[in-house]
Each structure stands twice: as structure tokens, then as C-alpha cells.
Design a protein that fits this description.
The chain has 174 residues and is an alpha/beta fold. Helices cover 29% and strands 33% of the residues. The chain is built from 5 helices and 9 strands.
Length: 174
């Protein structure tokens, strides 16, 4: 996948969701078949030999490539969601945000200790949501879990939210 093609097709929206924020809109990457197929192909190449049995997509943009990648890898797909969205018994992790806290949940029976898990989301900024999801997966007894994002905002140092032994990969750094 040509990273310049991704950059060219990524929409930037200034002052969203509030003044001073530059929002990177990945929906333009999903609607472009070359970008979408290229991202799926590149993610598949990164993880095809890792023994992945479950892919966890983070609500909500992580569901798109996470689901497609799970199918391509022959793995199950698990949704990590905000409270009140999952119908069965859940486990949850609360984490600090810039202003207050938030919570992420998984179905209690979604992952077993024998799974090899890939967690996926669209954007690594501060890393709080993904770090909480990673902790949830580890609470399930999983020994090996990988973390992946489409985009990493380097200036926000989101990798610091993870222990040094966590393998974090991104397709594009901005």
C-alpha cells in the first residue's frame, strides 16, 4: 500500500469536534476501493503468520477493518463497545480521559485464555481507549495480544499508554 495514496485520500477537518482540533476522517479511506483493499492487504501481511484467533475492533470505526481483517485471517471478530451496547454479560475497564472518564466493555465469554488476539482501531492519539481494551483482553488470560491502528498521531505519544513489550503497529504516521 502506498502511504502517499492513503495521505492523499485522508480528509482533514479543522475545528472538529471543537475549535483547535484537527480531525482526521478515515471514512474517505474506506470509500476508496484502492485504499480499503490496500489497508486490508497490508494488515493481512502484517498478521497472517501470528496465529491470530480473534480480532477485537474498537467502537466504532475499528469495526470496519477489524471485521474485514478477521474474515481474511480466518479469525473470530469481537466488538469492544461503550456501556449499554452489548446484550450479554460483560467485563469492563474504566479509563481516564482529558476531561473525566470513559468505559469500554467486552462480552465476558468473547475471549478465552487460548486465543491470540489482535486489537484494531482507526487512530492512535493518546492511547487511552485502546490501552483499556488491551487490559480487558489480558484480564481474560490471553498471553499474546497485538495492537494495531490505521493512523498514529506521533506528537501525542499514544504508545506511552502501553507497556514496552506490547507490539503496536500503524499503517500511517502523521
Amino acid at each position: 500500500m502506498n502511504k502517499e495514496t492513503l495521505k492523499k485520500n485522508l480528509r482533514e477537518i479543522p475545528d472538529f469536534p471543537k475549535p483547535g482540533i484537527l480531525f482526521y476522517d478515515v471514512t474517505t479511506l474506506f470509500k476508496n476501493v484502492e485504499c480499503l483493499q490496500g489497508m486490508i492487504d497490508e494488515l493481512y501481511e502484517l498478521y497472517k503468520d501470528k496465529g491470530i484467533t480473534k480480532v477485537v475492533g474498537i467502537e466504532s470505526r475499528g469495526f470496519i477493518l477489524g471485521g474485514a481483517l478477521a474474515a481474511r485471517l480466518g479469525a473470530g471478530f469481537i466488538m469492544a463497545r461503550k456501556p449499554g451496547k452489548l446484550p450479554a454479560e460483560v467485563i469492563e475497564e474504566t479509563y481516564a480521559k482529558e476531561y473525566g472518564t470513559d468505559t469500554i466493555q467486552l462480552h465476558k465469554d468473547a475471549i478465552s485464555k487460548d486465543d491470540v488476539v489482535l486489537l484494531h482501531d482507526d487512530l492512535l492519539a493518546t492511547g487511552g481507549t485502546m490501552a483499556a481494551a488491551y487490559r480487558l483482553v489480558k484480564r481474560c488470560g490471553v498471553e499474546k495480544a497485538y495492537v494495531n491502528f490505521v493512523i498514529e498521531l506521533k506528537g501525542l505519544n499514544g504508545r506511552n499508554a502501553f507497556e514496552k513489550d506490547v507490539e503496536v503497529t500503524t499503517l500511517l504516521e502523521l
